[in-house]
Amino acid sequence: MKIFIDTANVAEIRDGVSIGIVDGVTTNPSLIAKEKRPFRPLVEEICSIVPGDVSLEVVATDFEGMVKEGEELSKIAKNVVVKCPLTKDGLRAVRHLSGKGIRVNQTLCFSATQALLSAKAGATYISPFLGRLDDISHVGMDLVRDIVEIYRNYGFTTQVLAASIRSPLHVVDAAKAGAHVATMPFAVLEQLMKHPLTDIGLKKFLDDWAKAGVKL
User: Fold this and answer.
1) The whole model's pTM is what?
2) How far apart are the first and last CA of the chain?
3) 85 alpha-carbon distance from chain centroid
4) Which H or E run contains 24?
5) Catalytic residue numbers, as ranges
6) Orientation of helix 140-154 relative to helix 168-177, angle to 10°
7) pLDDT tens-place string over residues 153-208
8) Which helix (H) or strand (E) holds 160?
9) How would you classify the pairing of strands 2-6 and 125-128?
10) What pLDDT digit, counting tens, does each position of 72-128 carry?
């Protein structure tokens, strides 16, 4: 499973990429606005750091606007994937953009039927939002399982990108469900690396080494 971080913070992105485990980045208008930097220089810097795909989202809601913005975003860098919302016009935009060779991540997916239509429209990624479904007492991970099963049944090449991830358990469950990608806040990525027994074990090893007075 690929690991993306859901952020527009350059420091977080540099840190994640330096570890060697971050495959890509997803952004959205809220994350971009949080950085309080001019849009174009910010996303150009992000694209130059990230080894894989960077999702940049349109803000238009009509078909013509999404296509225009999507075409412009795709010119920023070769690793840009255009994000379009899962609406009727969004589906039309996916069909149009993908037909021109522009890769699209269809975002704000909350049902298997939406995901089916997105795959038929030619999306490169589909982004089911797990945490937001959990928030309204639905099991978000069930949606990932349904989408993975449907795509396998029909050989769709659209990749399932588990989004709105809130915890390490979400990441584990997404991997078990067969999601191709999980995108998460940097704080969750850091949680994946930590375990108290690792810290305890390392401390004991170092204490014993120090007591022995030996050197490498």
Assistant:
1) 0.94
2) 37
3) 14
4) strand 24-26
5) 83
6) 20
7) 999 999 999 999 999 999 999 999 999 999 999 999 999 999 999 999 999 999 99
8) strand 159-162
9) unpaired
10) 999 999 999 999 999 999 999 999 999 999 999 999 999 999 999 999 999 999 999
- Kindly report the CATH number that applies to the domain delimited by 2-212: 3.20.20.70
Structure token digits, residue 194? 């930590």
- Residue found by looking up tokens 């090449």 in the block: 157
Give, in order, the Cα–Cα distances in Å from 174 to each of 2, 11, 44, 93: 11, 26, 30, 28
The string of DSSP codes covering 127-157 is EEBHHHHHHTT--HHHHHHHHHHHHHHHT--
Q: Could you state, in order of their start, the residue ranges of all structural domains in the chain?
A: 2-212
Q: Residues near 133 by Cβ (< 8 Å), separated by ≥ 6?
A: 110, 139, 140, 143, 164
- What would the DSSP string read from start to end of 47-115? HHH-SS-EEEE----SHHHHHHHHHHHHTS-TTEEEEEESSHHHHHHHHHHHHTT--EEEEEE-SHHHH
Task: Give the type of residue at 95.
Answer: R
